[in-house]
Design a protein that fits this description.
seven-stranded antiparallel sheet, alpha+beta, 599 residues, single chain
């Protein structure tokens, strides 16, 4: 697999296809004519033949290398093993993460019913448009009643269906903590338009100790040193912790999970608009269970098996990382050797296209996904050993998910060895520069519409409330989604802006659907037609591939590349071109063997 090029003409001799056609009229023909004139006197040179054979072998695919030298495709086998192990690991982690996230979300819903005054089931479903307004308090009594409701719910956990306990070894409820965050000074005198203000935010906290009879937070504040000043209040929080055990995760080889939820009931008054939003947050932390020690000890097999899988994934990805890094390094050494050869033998510089042939983007992508998967597997192992708690689940899923995405993208590399499956890759490669230039122009227009819509329609249209939602709305319109709702939701409070919204939306939809998208598709179709023509008439060649020439299936399997006739290429290049640096670098990699054998 080393040095496999992404050239469209790579193919396997074993697939039974005909030999590649020579180009009839391509940009590579001019280079070929130049070589015919410049190298006629050196066509029989032994050095040139050795260099050509070396490059031919470098750009072979794994099957051809096996036929040419019986060289075992280590990287190819490593990638096959990696894709199986990584996908199996991801499936197990995805199942566990779904259960974890679903369990914590369901508990958050339960806490909302237990501790939030005014919470109902309609708020549990994300609907568009929303079925209800924000949960908020508007009166002083509502604020104190919400605190009283949460306090009573906390001290009556035994009334909950869930197996909840207090964060205490003896199950004695610790007093909940109330914190408020106020401006250091905030006095408003609206009657004469005067105020006193200091923007520094000062926190102050107090414990809600248990009292006999009903708890009244308003009375409690009046008797304590802590006063609630709503004019300067920015945010208030009531906090407590609850423990629980999840039996659902338990099975023949998996023990139950123990959690502590740090619950916070948040009163947000940052806008100071008379509406104090009320919300609940429950942060889960995984704990070490102290239950049936015999059961837990007898079921360590689950943790052992998962640890073995994580270690295997880390080892196979490390091997892949080392092999691909080594291949990229060797490719750069061969590039410098080729540049020296062109400079000395033909008195010319190797073209940029020729130099880029030695940079294998697939290997770079494999290295990136190896790093991501190694990091994700290490975090996953620590999560399963209970060394991490909650936040690392999302970080781990990000690493493993992105790494697995790139692993499956890498499968396209091997399909690219066959002409039938290489069309998509070649079309994207051909269209990429034009798509990039086209996208820049389209993004400038898109940015103009986005900022304009956000500024003008934001206060009157729920889809334009923020810059991100405006962009999402416009992108949805490009794809024909929810058009009528976008038109109909616009408020009619301002007739001028209502008519502007019609002109704005009609202009954007017409421009992007009928013009921009059509041009975008035409750019890709033009690249596709070009690739089809290349398959018919032959692909253009860089000066490097013109020098390498064609390699027939008979040559590959003839045993020519297994001979030692070219083992003296290092010595020859060293004597002619003084390439001591490259020879010594190759010797360090391969233990002093010949350059050709190493590559």
């Amino acid at each position: 697999m080393e040095g496999v090029s992404s050239s469209p003409e790579d193919h396997s001799c074993s697939d039974g296809e005909e030999e590649r056609k020579n180009p009839r009229h391509t940009p590579g023909n001019h280079t070929s004519q130049g070589f015919a004139q410049g190298t006629s006197s050196a066509s029989g040179s032994q050095l040139e033949e050795k260099m050509r054979r070396k490059l031919q072998f470098f750009f072979m695919n794994p099957i051809e290398k096996w036929q040419a030298k019986r060289k075992f495709p280590y990287k190819f086998v490593v990638q096959l093993i990696k894709i199986v192990l990584v996908t199996f690991q991801l499936c197990l982690f995805a199942h566990n993460r779904y259960n974890h996230v679903n369990y914590t979300w369901d508990n958050r819903i339960s806490f909302s019913h237990l501790f939030l005054l005014g919470w109902d089931s309609t708020r549990e479903i994300n609907a568009y448009p929303p079925g209800a307004g924000p949960l908020a308090v508007y009166k002083l009594d509502e604020f104190y009643n919400a605190l009283d409701y949460a306090y009573e719910g906390y001290y009556n956990l035994s009334n909950a269906i869930g197996p909840y306990s207090y964060n205490d070894e003896e199950n004695i409820p610790p007093p909940p903590k109330f914190c408020q965050y106020n401006y250091k000074q905030g006095i408003i005198n609206g009657f004469n338009e005067s105020y006193e203000f200091n923007a520094e935010i000062v926190p102050s906290c107090i414990n809600f100790t248990k009292t006999f009879g009903l708890f009244r937070s308003k009375q409690f504040f009046e008797e304590s040193d802590l006063k609630v000043d709503f004019a300067s209040l920015v945010r208030a929080e009531m906090m407590f912790s609850i423990k629980t055990i999840n039996f659902r995760a338990a099975g023949p080889i998996t023990p139950p999970d123990c959690y502590r939820f740090d619950v916070a009931i948040i009163f947000d008054n940052e806008d100071h608009d008379g509406q104090m939003s009320l919300s609940l947050d429950a942060e889960p932390y995984k704990l070490t269970c102290k239950g049936d020690q015999e059961y837990v000890t007898d079921n360590k097999i689950d943790q052992v098996l998962r640890s073995i899988l994580n270690i295997l994934v880390i080892l196979i990805c490390s091997a892949s990382l080392i092999l691909c890094s080594r291949a990229i390094y060797r490719a750069q050494l061969l590039k410098e050797l080729t540049v020296q050869f062109f400079r000395r033998a033909y008195n010319k510089e190797l073209s940029l296209d020729g130099r880029l042939e030695f940079l294998n983007i697939w290997y770079i992508m494999i290295i990136v996904n190896d790093i991501l998967i190694i990091m994700g597997s290490a975090i996953k192992e620590q999560i399963e050993r209970n060394q991490f708690t909650n936040d690392q689940w999302n970080v781990c899923s990000l690493f493993l998910g992105t790494g697995n995405l790139l692993v499956w993208f890498g499968v396209l590399r091997y399909l690219g060895f066959f002409k039938t499956y290489n069309v998509v890759i070649l079309t994207l490669k051909k269209a990429a520069p034009k798509i990039f230039r086209f996208s820049i122009c389209a993004l400038l227009l898109y940015a103009g519409f986005t900022f304009c819509g956000w500024l003008i329609l934001g206060p009157y249209h729920m889809k334009f409330r923020s810059l991100s939602t405006t962009s999402e709305c416009l992108f949805s319109l490009i794809n024909g989604d929810d058009m009528f709702a976008t038109f109909s939701v616009m408020s009619k409070k301002s007739p001028l802006l209502w008519w502007f919204s019609r002109v704005y939306l009609y202009s954007f939809i017409s421009l992007y659907i009928y013009v921009v998208l059509s041009l975008f598709i035409s750019v890709i179709m033009d690249a596709y037609d070009t690739i089809k023509q290349y398959y018919k008439d032959g692909f253009p060649k860089s000066d490097l591939h013109t020098f390498i020439g064609e390699t027939s299936c008979e040559e590959v399997s003839s045993g020519l590349y297994r001979t030692q006739s070219s083992s003296s290429l290092n010595a020859t290049m060293n004597s002619l071109f003084c390439c001591n640096f490259y020879r010594s670098a190759y010797a360090k990699i391969g233990g002093g063997g010949s350059t050709l054998n190493l590559l």
